[in-house]
């Protein structure tokens, strides 16, 4: 397989000024006629050859300026059509054929539930027609769709509808024109029998936008939340960034078979139905929040991604990091800023940190790839968003806005780089941000170690921060903003003043100080410090780093109870829980009895009793760190010990606090219709955290059964079913059966039924997984269903997947091999849990490696799977 490098970038030697596409849709023989107006635009290499990308399509005809070419006039192979035009400007017409019905990769033009749809990002357009398939080639698109009318009443593409009419033989057609130049990865086509809901939005400059959501007819009652989310997003982007929608129509189509969450095609977003469809009976709070944020994310792409796009795919974080940052800020504003921040940090730690420490580690601007689709990663997206957040942390919200304004002023309609973004931020604020470059090109999670020295005589406090990357002094030290605060051991805030010479590396931010760590090692000195304070480190998680603090249990207790910063309060609770579990792991290894760390138990009690605490924050504070987060603290993972200690800790807390947990649970039983609203969400969240502990005691399982049978809303039903699923009792079987009866016809809800069983902590989990795979409702062609069994098993059923026999690994390897032939993107995503084999004990290490080797030995391995497996084994 070929490796592509950022350093090889060259501008295109041809431009495509406009493209007119005609689709004659047919499941097995779709004919695509592509007429392009081309111009030669010499680049450095001075090569006149026109090399068009094209794969998996049959070339029928090729014309230049009305002259039909013969096979001697071009070169054709599996990936390229190469022409040697002699004119500087000409019309190129290409006719090809493809079979959307047979396309199970869900890339390019394919069928889902009998409808047609497309997915072109990153390089799918070349499976539709021959083209310069690269994001820096921008063109005006006109699309004519011809199809059988009874099967395809709805014909959609990007931009505005300019013409539509009936044709003989039961066919009809529609012509769409997009007035904005765009790269081909933003092209979309949808055809089929779909129903729609409609609404309008009045922009701040007074235009009326037609909003439409298209779904399969049976889902028409589940679109209201998505529509409300779209309107909120449009308003938020106007208020926060002055960004207004630019077409007269905005369409969203929900499809069941989709590789990712959604796609921001200009004016015609295509969504995984999981991120559109919701009603209280079928969707959880997590689903509702997911829909709101993905709708927002795709909408925000209209400016950050579409109007200003990427020069090449190595710049992916330019649009993704920025757009994730924007959707995070939006969700914070809609619900709760600290809760959103904590949830994002949890996601980052449990998914991105391991990626950045494993064999697939790459900088947010990767320097090479074999298969681009493998680089839609937590690193490019979530760490990318953290890096964008650094600009806002350094420049303030107003400074960041100035940078955004300048970015659009300079680059609207262009395909640009992460440097262009950084320069806009720097120039708009008249500051030097060149050191930020290091965040884009170095991989790994930075570790910052803090040390303090208090001089009682001079009354000075010296705080030393030292940064390392992958265990070494970084080649290029990073610019790391560390937000800190001080308090006394009584929890009272303290105001400390930095010494004069530190003024450049330090900024006051409300009741906090922003320390700017720019050197490998740096001291920050505070003066007139009467007594040694408690230091609150990394408030708001001001940088995506691992911070090692000298704080011990007494400091953590003070911070957990009193810090003004919600993030640090939560973090300190996590640190106490972690300390408790770490001493448990040591005890387990020395065959000593397990105990709860008293300071953790005390903090847990005080959080549980604190009536002033926001209920969502309380729920988060009472939730133990995941086993995998505990595992991340060890070089070689003591799996059995962590499992035993985790189990013990939950059980011990449940026993010790059963009264208070039950009281809290009961006080949150409200008999109100479901509302997606901050307070109601928080109540359900805390109630279900309590339920999870309570269900550790057999006498409380009836509470879960009762909550399940109430059927108040999917959040409560599913939480109850989840706790029951870990017990192989008659009640549990009965509830699972009842759930299936109720929902077997609703594929998104049925996914939940599959997921819960795939995540269950039961002894014969392998048999259970095999049963799920053989279930008549299991479909290899549906990514959501595959993820709900195999994705969940590998990622979320840590204990079941890693059972010592290695059967979990074998099963996953076999399934990856099977999926490799059906849908390479989905197959390659499932490999990740195996790729961390080096961190496990020698027995597991060997078995995991063998599983990977068995995949690598497979014939016809896709680039997608090959890249992940070969890097994992390297
Ligand atoms: N840009 C798309 C992802 C495309 C995935 C290509 N394999 C969705 C998003 O990030 O909004
Ligand atoms: Zn995106």
Written description of the protein model:
The chain has 27 helices and 33 strands. By secondary structure, the chain is of the alpha+beta class. Among the domains are: 1-193, tricorn interacting facor f3 domain (Immunoglobulin-like), CATH 2.60.40.1730; 309-441, Neutral Protease, domain 2 (Orthogonal Bundle); 447-543, Immunoglobulin-like (Sandwich); 747-874, Alpha Horseshoe (Zincin-like fold), CATH 1.25.50.10. An eight-stranded mixed β-sheet has the order 6-5-9-3-2-12-15-14, with no helix packed on it. The longest helix has 34 residues, at 378-411. (3S)-3,7-diaminoheptanoic acid (B3K) binds at residues 121-122, 260, 262-264, 297-298, 301, 320, 373, 376.
Based on CA atoms alone, the radius of gyration comes out at 28 Å
What is the beta-strand fraction?
15-25%
Number of helices: 27
Helix percentage: 40-55%
Q: How far apart are the termini?
A: 16 Å
Estimated structural class: alpha+beta
CATH architectural category of one domain: Sandwich
On the 0-100 scale, what is the average pLDDT?
98
């Amino acid at each position: 397989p070929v490796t592509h490098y950022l350093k090889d970038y060259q501008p295109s030697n041809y431009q495509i000024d406009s493209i007119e596409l005609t689709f004659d849709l047919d499941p097995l023989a779709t004919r695509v006629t592509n007429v392009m107006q081309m111009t030669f635009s010499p680049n450095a290499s001075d090569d006149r050859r026109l090399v068009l990308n094209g794969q998996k399509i049959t070339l029928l005809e090729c014309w230049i300026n009305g002259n039909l070419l013969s096979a001697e006039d071009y070169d054709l192979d599996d990936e390229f059509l190469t022409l040697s035009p002699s004119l500087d400007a000409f019309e190129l017409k290409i006719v090809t054929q493809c079979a959307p019905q047979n396309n199970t990769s869900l890339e390019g033009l394919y069928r889902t539930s009998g409808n047609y749809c497309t997915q072109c990002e990153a390089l799918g357009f070349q499976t539709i027609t021959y083209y310069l398939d690269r994001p820096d080639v921008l063109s005006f698109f006109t699309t004519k769709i011809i199809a059988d009318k009874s099967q395809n009443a709805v014909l959609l593409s990007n931009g505005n509808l300019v013409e539509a009419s009936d044709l003989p033989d039961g066919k009809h057609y529609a012509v769409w024109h997009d007035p904005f130049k765009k790269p081909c990865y933003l092209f979309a086509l949808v055809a089929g029998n779909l129903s729609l809901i409609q609404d309008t939005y009045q922009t701040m400059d007074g235009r009326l936008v037609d909003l439409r959501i298209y779904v399969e007819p049976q889902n028409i009652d589940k679109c209201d939340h998505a529509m409300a989310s779209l309107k909120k997003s449009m308003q938020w982007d106007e208020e926060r960034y002055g960004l207004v929608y630019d077409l007269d129509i905005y369409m969203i189509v929900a499809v069941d078979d989709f590789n990712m969450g959604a796609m921001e095609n200009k004016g015609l977003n295509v969504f995984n139905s999981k991120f559109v469809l919701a009603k209280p009976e079928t969707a959880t709070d997590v689903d509702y929040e997911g829909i709101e944020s993905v709708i927002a994310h795709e909408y925000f792409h209209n400016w950050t991604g579409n109007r200003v796009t990427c020069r090449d795919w190595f710049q992916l974080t330019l649009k993704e990091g920025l757009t994730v940052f924007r959707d995070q800020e939006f969700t914070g504003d809609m619900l709760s800023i600290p809760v959103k921040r904590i949830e994002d940090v949890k996601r980052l730690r449990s998914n991105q940190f391991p990626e950045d420490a494993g064999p697939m580690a790459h900088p947010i601007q990767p320097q090479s790839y074999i298969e681009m689709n493998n680089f839609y990663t937590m690193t490019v997206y979530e760490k990318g968003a953290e890096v964008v957040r650094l600009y806002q942390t350094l420049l303030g919200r107003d400074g960041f806005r100035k940078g955004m304004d300048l970015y659009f002023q300079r680059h609207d309609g262009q395909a640009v780089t992460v440097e262009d973004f950084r320069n806009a931020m720097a120039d708009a604020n008249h500051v030097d941000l060149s050191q930020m470059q290091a965040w884009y090109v170095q991989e790994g999670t930075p570790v910052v170690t803090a040390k303090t020295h208090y001089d009682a005589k001079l009354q000075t406090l010296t705080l030393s921060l030292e940064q390392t990357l992958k265990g070494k002094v970084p080649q290029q030290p990073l610019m790391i903003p560390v937000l800190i605060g001080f308090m006394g051991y009584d929890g009272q805030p303290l105001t400390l003043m930095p010494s004069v010479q530190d003024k450049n590396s330090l900024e006051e931010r409300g009741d906090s100080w922003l320390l700017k760590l720019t050197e490998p090692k740096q001291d920050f000195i505070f003066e007139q410090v009467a007594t040694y304070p408690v230091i609150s480190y990394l408030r708001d998680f001001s940088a995506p780093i691992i911070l090692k603090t000298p704080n011990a249990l007494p400091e953590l207790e003070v911070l957990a109870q009193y810090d003004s910063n919600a993030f640090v309060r939560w973090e300190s609770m996590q640190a106490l829980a972690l300390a408790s579990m770490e001493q448990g792991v040591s005890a387990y290894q020395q065959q000593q009895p397990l105990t709860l760390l008293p300071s953790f138990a005390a903090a847990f009690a005080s959080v549980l009793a604190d009536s002033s605490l926001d209920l969502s924050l309380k729920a988060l504070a009472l939730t133990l760190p995941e086993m995998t987060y505990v595992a991340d603290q060890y070089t070689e993972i003591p799996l059995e010990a962590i499992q035993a200690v985790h189990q013990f800790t939950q059980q011990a807390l449940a026993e010790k606090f059963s009264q208070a947990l039950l009281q809290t649970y009961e006080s949150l039983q409200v008999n109100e219709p479901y509302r997606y609203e901050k307070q109601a969400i928080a109540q359900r969240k805390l109630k279900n955290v309590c339920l999870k502990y309570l269900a550790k005691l057999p006498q409380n399982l009836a509470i879960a059964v009762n909550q399940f049978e109430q059927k108040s809303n999917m959040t409560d039903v599913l939480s109850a079913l989840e706790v029951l699923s870990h017990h192989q009792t008659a009640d549990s079987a009965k509830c699972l059966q009842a759930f299936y009866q109720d929902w077997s016809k609703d594929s998104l809800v049925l996914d939940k039924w599959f997921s819960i069983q795939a995540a269950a902590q039961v002894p014969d989990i392998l048999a259970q997984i095999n049963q799920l795979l053989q279930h008549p409702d299991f479909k290899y062609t549906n990514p959501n269903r595959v993820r709900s069994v195999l994705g969940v098993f590998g990622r979320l059923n840590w204990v079941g997947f890693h059972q010592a026999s290695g059967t979990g690994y074998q099963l996953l390897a076999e399934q990856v091999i099977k999926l490799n032939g059906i849908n390479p993107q989905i197959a390659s995503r499932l490999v990740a849990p195996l790729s961390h084999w080096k961190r496990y004990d020698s027995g597991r290490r060997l078995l995991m490696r063998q599983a990977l080797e068995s995949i690598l030995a497979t014939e016809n391995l896709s680039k997608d799977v090959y890249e992940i497996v070969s890097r994992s084994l390297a």
